[in-house]
Amino acid sequence: MKIDKNNNKYIYVIVGKNIKRIRKEKGLTQVELADLVKYNEGTIANIENDSYQTFSLEFVYILSKKLNVPMAEFFKNIDEHK
Fold it and tell me: Is 44 exposed, middle or buried (0-12, 13-18, 19+ CB in 10 A)?
């Protein structure tokens, strides 16, 4: 899906892409990540796959703690899409 820069929800797409990148760098499947953060696998898939799936800042915080990654890493490259 092409990111519509005029849609305020585009941030979810960018963060979702970063979640996917970080998950893969950690060698985790979507199922393993879902189990780790106590979320549904389908939700993880939607977040990662440009569906504009919304999620909370608390969710990013949980990911940060569970994956031992600074929260800023999930917001990487956002400015490139403005």
Answer: buried
Q: What is the pTM of this model?
A: 0.87
10-77 adopts what CATH topology? 434 Repressor (Amino-terminal Domain) (1.10.260)
Token pair recorded at residue 61: 């915080």
Give the Cα separation of 63 and 81 in Å (integer): 23
Residue 75 burial (CB count, 10 A): 14
Per-residue pLDDT tens over the stretch 24-56: 999 999 999 999 999 999 999 999 997 778 899
Distance of CA 58 to the CA centre of its chain: 12
35: left (phi over 0), alpha (psi -120 to 50) or beta: alpha
What are the C-alpha distances in Å from 18 to residues 5, 8, 38, 52? 17, 17, 19, 14
